[in-house]
Write a structure and sequence with these properties.
45% of the residues lie in helices and 13% in strands. It is an alpha/beta fold and 561 residues long. Helix 7 runs antiparallel to helix 12 and helix 8 runs antiparallel to helix 11.
């Protein structure tokens, strides 16, 4: 009998007493899954030593039977005292000792019978391409939020599974595909890019693009040498892929991050092809306008595939990069008949009880001890600002541990009911967004992060930013009937604002005396929004007046800083 507990005396007492009073021959395993708290773990010393008795504050003493075992599963023993450590046997497992290969072999065994013939191909792809990519990621690149090899490999498996759904689902849909091998190779390339290649920063993506092209084209030996660790890491012989991601023209090169595999046409297409035909509606409000870009196309498509296949997605990026907006767009676009979105925002004061109360209020009782959304639906839960909850004295974040328990164990304990019964929760898929650790945001335990497929958002390129705000300002000026001479100045104003914004990021760094010098993309947006608000009150026809107003708005924003 396996029970996962949180550090509450009432919960421990009830489970421990039930196990101790059971007269059957069943063996009971009481598992404490989570970070060790130096206070309550000290109170367990009487259980862990030769007495084997649980002493409660009420004076009740519960003895441990020979058929009971107690286990602890923390990430580390940073706050455990020597008295506690000396009373238990310790098994320490480092992530690199296990590696990602056992998880991959286990996942490979889940392939349906009609895909049995493709197992050797998938095995070769992972060991030929993913293995050196992981080594390159660890040695050469900086990650916005740290990961481990098994986390990246799991993300690659989940993405690959989501994109080959037609092959996987049934024999009928598999037979309808003309070239399954082509689909497997191309979908794996896509999964590789958005697992091993998407946790690094902007500079890292440039390097990873060159490396992945070298791997896909079988040039690792030529580019890095026969003795390089990247070549020796490849456990499979290179072979020629049917379709390698295009590299663009010499005049306009493209990267591996610019393409997706179109299964209807069986070829690579640009992500930007998904955005054709966009027009800002006339009744839009500035702060609600979302201009489609290559970022919105690829991030939304990846998240939609993952959520529809019940996989969890985590967006990591700086303030103003659109993490929450993109996630909400995806959840709101899901089929209303089968999905319902829930949004929860975390803060420094978010408590474990508050999160559980919000979720319990959304769940329906299906049968005894089992809860979930209304029948026939699935809740897509978005947790915003995931790493904002305050870290406790001994390193735990209770809201995070509660969510981890729900995902890993399928539910949590009902504190409102007598006896704290276990509440199983069905048909929930979690998505989350958070900023990079630091500046009030803490590092999330890897035991929770590994449950998600992580994608890091990089800063928008200048051309992308100028395209977004030029589109919005063009729409505003044309809707309000401004002259062509004024509209022609839009691009110049946006590009000059972008240049000042980049200069501010480089030269106006925060210092102890000027800690408010923190700029992000929201400041860029406020300048453009300020122009629209100013021109909503007056009508101008001279371009010089527009420049004067733009300068005044920018100075006002700078003064507020």
């Amino acid at each position: 009998m396996l029970r996962s507990l949180v550090g509450s005396e009432m919960c421990i007492r009830d489970r421990y007493r039930t196990a101790a009073r059971d007269e059957s021959t069943d063996r009971h395993w009481v598992l404490f899954d989570g970070p060790v708290d130096a206070i309550w773990i000290e109170n367990m010393n009487t259980v862990l030593d030769d007495n084997k008795k649980l002493c409660l504050m009420s004076g009740e003493i519960i003895g441990m039977t020979p058929r009971m075992n107690m286990m602890f599963e923390p990430m580390d023993l940073a706050v455990a005292s020597p008295a506690t450590v000396s009373r238990v046997g310790i098994i320490f497992v480092e992530p690199h000792c296990l590696g990602w290969q056992p998880k991959f072999e286990s996942w490979l065994s889940t392939f349906p019978d009609h895909m049995e013939a493709h197992k050797p191909l998938v095995h070769e792809l992972f060991f030929w391409m993913l293995a050196p990519a992981l080594k390159y990621l660890r040695r050469e690149l900086f990650e916005i939020s740290p990961t481990m090899d098994i986390m990246v490999a799991t993300s690659c498996m989940n993405l690959f599974r989501s994109y080959v759904d037609e092959l996987w689902e049934s024999k009928e849909t598999y037979d309808a595909v003309k070239d399954p091998v082509l689909w497997i190779e191309c979908c794996f390339q896509l999964a590789l890019v958005w697992s091993a290649g998407c946790t690094c920063d902007s500079e890292g993506r440039i390097k990873m693009n060159l490396f992945l092209r070298s791997v896909m084209e079988g040039r690792v030996k030529d580019d890095f040498g026969e003795s390089s660790i990247y070549y020796t890491e490849q456990a499979a012989s290179p072979f020629e892929l049917k379709q390698v991601m295009p590299s663009g023209d010499e005049d306009k090169p493209t990267s591996v991050y610019d393409y997706y595999f179109n299964k209807e046409k069986s070829k690579w297409l640009l992500w930007t092809d998904l955005n054709k035909g966009f027009k800002v509606p006339d009744d839009s409000e500035f702060h609600k306008i979302i201009v489609p870009t290559i970022d919105s196309a690829r991030y939304c498509d990846l998240m939609r595939h993952m959520v529809l296949h019940k996989n969890r997605m985590l967006f990591v990026g700086a303030t103003g990069t659109g993490k929450t907006v993109y996630a909400q767009m995806v959840l709101l676009s899901l089929p209303k008949e089968t999905h319902a979105p829930i949004s929860i925002g975390f803060s420094a004061q978010t408590s474990c009880g508050a999160v559980q109360s919000i979720m319990d209020g959304k769940l329906d009782k299906r049968r005894k001890g089992v809860y979930g959304p209304p029948r026939g639906k699935q809740y897509a839960v978005l947790v915003d600002d995931l790493n904002m909850p305050k870290v406790e004295t001994y390193g735990a974040q209770p809201p995070i541990e509660l969510l981890r328990q729900c995902i890993s164990n399928g539910g949590w304990y009902d504190w409102a009911e007598k006896g704290t019964p276990w509440k199983s929760i069905e048909d929930l898929v979690y998505c989350a967004a958070m900023g990079p650790p630091g500046g009030g945001r803490s590092f999330i335990t890897p035991r929770f992060i590994h449950l998600f497929t992580q994608i890091s958002f990089t800063d928008l390129e200048d051309d992308t930013m100028c395209f977004i705000y030029s589109t919005i300002l063009d729409w505003f000026f044309q809707k309000n009937g401004f002259s062509g001479a004024v509209i022609n100045q839009v691009e110049a104003i946006v590009r000059s604002t972008c240049a000042v914004y980049r200069s501010a990021l480089d030269k106006l760094r925060p210092t102890p005396s000027k800690s408010h010098y923190i700029f992000n993309l929201r400041d860029f947006a406020r300048v453009c929004q300020g122009i629209t608000l100013s021109l909503s009150l007056i009508h101008i026809s001279e371009p010089t007046r527009l420049l004067s107003i733009s300068y005044a708005v920018f100075c006002l924003k700078k003064k507020k800083k």
